Amino acid sequence: MIPKKALIAALIISVFSHVLILTMTGFIPAYVERPTGDTITVELTGKPVQPEENPLESKVPPMRLTVREMPAITDKEDTVDLDDTESKYAPYLMRIKQRIETVWSYPDDALHQKLAGTNMLRFTVEHDGSLVGVRLLTRSGNNSLDLGSIRAVRSAAPFDPIPGEMKLNRLHIIATFDYRIVD
């Protein structure tokens, strides 16, 4: 059984860590009333139940939390194919594809062994253009080719921000990488 002191210490550390992370990222939940001024300062304090049960509480300094206004962004997201030329996303996807193609190359070891293959990735772009995830959906049959595709997407990031008229928070993009050696 876990001692009560250890649970209280873990709880204090957890609360402190979460507040610190929220403060650093600027995340404010939608249900929190926002101030009318620029910022407010909140000081969190607590009183120990019994000093002998919670020796860590006296060592934890008061925390300050600054509230910032965040731009309004919808929670809307969509999934599209990188080669889509018909949808409203086509111009944006073309810019992403061109950016990836500038850094995509045939892995040297696969080229020397004349290995070919096709794989498919799904990657996610946030509203600000940052890459937040890359996942291999289908394998080419060669790790070097698969890693080359993932490396190309990561190297091309960050991308241009998602245009505001698309009203998206994030865009999931499916991309096919075809490695062929033409003689």
Q: What's the SSE pattern?
A: HEEEHHEEHE
Distance between the termini: 69 Å
Counting DSSP H or I runs of 4 or more residues, the number of helices is 4
* Total domain modules: 2
| CATH topology type of the largest domain | Fusion Protein Consisting Of Minor Coat Protein, Glycine Rich Linker, Tola, And A His Tag, Chain: A, Domain 2
Taking strands numbered 1, 2, ... along the chain, how are they ordered across the largest sheet? 3-6-4-5
Low-confidence stretches: 28-61, 65-73
Please give a structural write-up.
By secondary structure, this protein is α+β, with helices and mostly antiparallel strands. It folds into two domains: 4-66, no CATH class; 77-179, Fusion Protein Consisting Of Minor Coat Protein, Glycine Rich Linker, Tola, And A His Tag, Chain: A, Domain 2 (2-Layer Sandwich), CATH 3.30.1150. The chain has helices at residues 4-25, 90-103, 108-112, 143-156, and strands at 41-44, 63-66, 77-81, 117-126, 131-138, 170-179. The strands form two sheets. The protein has a four-stranded mixed beta sheet with strand order 3-6-4-5, with helices on one face. A two-stranded antiparallel sheet has the order 1-2. Strand 4 and strand 5 (131-138) form a beta hairpin. Helix 2 (90-103) crosses helix 4 (143-156). It is flat. The termini are far apart. Mean pLDDT is 77; it is low at 28-61 and 65-73.
